[in-house]
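Lab notebook, bench 4. We co-purified these components, and the gel suggests they stay together. Before we commit to crystallization screens, I want a quick structural picture of the whole thing.
Request: model the full complex, all chains together.
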Amino acid sequence: MKSAPEHLHARLHSLIGQSVATIDTPALVVDLDAMERNLQKMADYAKAHGVKLRPHAKMHKSAALSLRQMQAGAVGMCVQKTSEAEALAAAGVHNLYISNEVIAPPKLQRVAALARNLQARGGRLAIAVDSLLGIEHLAQAMDSGANLIDVFVELDVGQKRCGVAEPADVLPLAQAIASHPSLRLAGLQAYNGRAQHLRTVAERRAALDEVIARVQEARRIVEAAGLSLPLVTGAGSGTFGLEASSGVFGELQAGSYLFMDADYARNEADPAQPAFEHALFVKSQVMSVSPGHVVVDAGHKSHAIESGLPRVHGEALEATGCSDEHTTLRATSSAPLPTLGATLWLIPGHCDPTVNLHDWIVGVRGGLQAGSVTELIRVDARGCLD
Amino acid sequence: MKSAPEHLHARLHSLIGQSVATIDTPALVVDLDAMERNLQKMADYAKAHGVKLRPHAKMHKSAALSLRQMQAGAVGMCVQKTSEAEALAAAGVHNLYISNEVIAPPKLQRVAALARNLQARGGRLAIAVDSLLGIEHLAQAMDSGANLIDVFVELDVGQKRCGVAEPADVLPLAQAIASHPSLRLAGLQAYNGRAQHLRTVAERRAALDEVIARVQEARRIVEAAGLSLPLVTGAGSGTFGLEASSGVFGELQAGSYLFMDADYARNEADPAQPAFEHALFVKSQVMSVSPGHVVVDAGHKSHAIESGLPRVHGEALEATGCSDEHTTLRATSSAPLPTLGATLWLIPGHCDPTVNLHDWIVGVRGGLQAGSVTELIRVDARGCLD
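Here is the predicted assembly.
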């Protein structure tokens, strides 16, 4: 008996070569032409600014897209979870950084197995830590392996989430890492997720001033003790231009730039950064028409709304509500509402959790109106939580 | 090569018979003892009040749980999507109501195939409509089949989403359904999702007064024209006691009662309804400790937050923020924060979209502390959007 995702795959696969109009709704669709322009623009930017690019694969969770980013110059990929790393490694991505803490010994056994596996393929695994206990557990899991994994100390640079609280707290962790032959002290993880979504350029610059000051202080303290933090890694799609020109960051982790979402589009544009196009859409259909509003057949099980409701591409419509399987829209002009059965293209509020709701992304070329389906992109790490 | 869900299944399957402590995090866990008490309480309630129970399977998306609910007396299951109906039918659920509109002719071809398939197995398919065009498309898809599908006219009863706007609008749709031999006019769909989450009993009663008045008016108009609406179906876990005692509703669609979530727990309890226990949890682990807060390894890719942040079961902690893979918690008392590696059980803000993030639910008996894993429940219709 075929599973539901297998049935869906069969339906979607039959669309290859067909017009965009044949895609049933709701479906997650990527405009490959726009995506490739975004991809190249960021690759060019990193190269021109002399920083490494290690895009965050938690955004698309796709091995095929990871490999395209690496072919364009990315040094490897970031992930947040052990199972994400396993899924991408199994599909051919051999340079991975779990930019997050792992504490549980059973999961660290999997991390160790993956580190050996990637090393055997000429690749490399890296991980973040923010506690002595985490380093001890990690070293125990690595057992007797020499130089098996790159380890970054995470410093909180204003997000108030993970990471040691103060720059001075980095030193004891750096020393503990350096004391274990299986671990290589690779540098500092300094990511401020909040800064990405501050709306004005001035707010983002002020937040990054703090980030950079804290990174510099940590580096000074660690170097004064005779150790070094070779690489500082961080940055997201909202601020990467600031990290790239900071003189202290050597690697950018931005992910959303590839697809762009409605939340990032609410940021005031920073002229120091390239601008990206919306490439990710949920194709939806008007399934109900009422006086004053219409309802489409895609709700928050199709597109994540925790960072705001979706925008409607190219229409004078705004979302006024969203439930599991419905989004309600009203007109923002005096133009008539769309009719029953009309196609509407939603720009999701937030790419990352939206992609995680889908098993495949339908790739189209030639635009959303006249284009056709050219490939299916598997969301390899969909649902990889542990 | 095994897919990521297959690897996860292997990891989870090895836990059967083991203690709850062995479940790695994050994981979606159901307390089967509590769930079964909820299940029986609702079955008893519907029986005692002489109303049919057709629980909404969009909540758990599981055929196994559907069949347990039906074994306890439920007449069938509701779903919202064609692919959900297909997934549950393939796994043995043969009485299904798509309580939602379907407009696209290719999807209605699937609806027709499913209706024939279920009829051949002694089951039945039903669907909702709110437009003449929808009825025409449905009838075309059903082709020459006689009495092939039950059709409910949806009336908006205060949710301002789908459904015809006014009670008088029901009549022309009822007449159109009655004119097609393949369609059986089954009754009225009257569901007010907003009413479920009004916080006070008084507000919910006022909302239901409006619902009931509109249903009565629609029924009067249709009956005056010589047709009948045999069954009125609706209600959710927040108000079902009001529908059950209304004298007009014949069927309850409540779903969340089986698991309960943090959002429903914020409702003032209605003494006219049985109270349900929290049975669904995300097991999580403290992965980072900072002065004043801790971070667990389960974010909104593990538990949906669109209806509010999760609660922490049995701990004086509150969630203050949530990102893709992290939830930040602070103390609500002077008790010390949990230590690195501690297990915390999150009660999700909203069951339905939370379950949809997972491929399996880990079933435990004997409680969250001393219990053990007894089964895995497959989320058969996970990701079924179209």
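Residues 33-262 of chain B form a domain with the TIM Barrel fold (CATH 3.20.20.10). Worth comparing against the SEC data before the next meeting. The longest strand of chain B covers residues 280-290.
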